[in-house]
Amino acid sequence: MSDIQNQNPETTPETPVEAATAPTTPADGTSSRPRHERSGPRGDRKPRRDGMREEEKEFKEELLAIDRVTRVTAGGRQIRFRASIVIGDGKGRVGLGTGKAGEVQVAIEKAIRDAKKNLITFPIVNGTIPHDVTAEYKSSSLFIHPAHPGTGIIAGGSVRKIFAVSGIKDVIAKQHGAPNKITNARVTMSALAALKPLHLVTSFSKKTSSETTKTSEASPEKKPTAKKAPAKKKAE
Which residues partner with 100 through β-bridges? Predict the structure, then answer.
């Protein structure tokens, strides 16, 4: 008993609990701690071994609306979903599509396939449209006006979503008529399809200045002639 009391505590072996809780280091020198507890910047992490990377999509997708539609048949009512999507590559190419299915995800996939079949291309000049344009579709009408750099997209609803994926950065638009999202999207597509390239657009300011110079060259300025003073009457 006295030998146990006089034993040096420094030479006592570790208890099983302490040995179990002590961190272990593998032979290769790496730490066995979880990855989120290791110190060091994120840039030191090794890349993935599989080398898989997410492929960039060709088109940007913007969801306009998801509606629930009902079809009445002899067996009863069939509930389906209708998705409306607009896609664009950000370089002046956009498309609008709709799809119906019993599930939302399937309807979205159908709408994307339909949008790729209905792509249109329009010119973009310095981030805006080359000229004013007005379009009408059913009960909806739209007016689009080019804007200076830094103005942004001044529009709302479906019109704004289409401009966002098409690549237009500065534009002013005003829509009148129906509040239906699909109708507003179709009138926007018809307005963009009516845009002409810059070299086909007539500049009225240049035309007016050229006509003014031609008129001034054809009719040279005439110096005003001095009027003669009336002759004095001789006294009788």
Answer: 82
Backbone angles phi, psi at 172, to 5 degrees: -125, 125
Average pLDDT score over residue span 40-65: 66
Q: What is the percentage of the chain residues whose pLDDT exceeds 90? A: 51
CA distance linking residue 173 with residue 179, whole number of Å: 15
Q: Is the pLDDT of residue 31 over 70?
A: no
Looking at the domain that runs over 133-196, which CATH code has it been given?
Answer: 3.30.230.10
- Other CB atoms within a 10 A radius of the CB of residue 28 amount to 5
pLDDT of 229 strictly over 80: no
32 Cβ neighbours under 8 A, 6+ residues apart: 23, 24, 25, 26
Task: Report how far residue 129's alpha carbon sits from residue 163's, in angstroms, rounded to the nearest whole number.
Answer: 11
What architecture (CATH level 2) is domain 60-121?
A: 2-Layer Sandwich (3.30)
- Give me the residues paired with residue 135 across strands: 142
Q: Which residue has the higher pLDDT, 6 or 91?
A: 91
Helix, strand or coil, per DSSP, at residue 144: strand
CA gap 119, 96 in Å, rounded = 7
* pLDDT, mean of residues 74-102: 93
Q: Where are the domains of the chain?
A: 60-121, 133-196
- Count of H helices and E strands in the chain? 6, 8
Mean pLDDT value of segment 116-120 = 93
Rounded mean pLDDT of the chain? 78
C-alpha 177/C-alpha 188 separation (Å) is 13
Query: 6: which residues sit within 8 A by CB, 6+ positions away?
Result: none
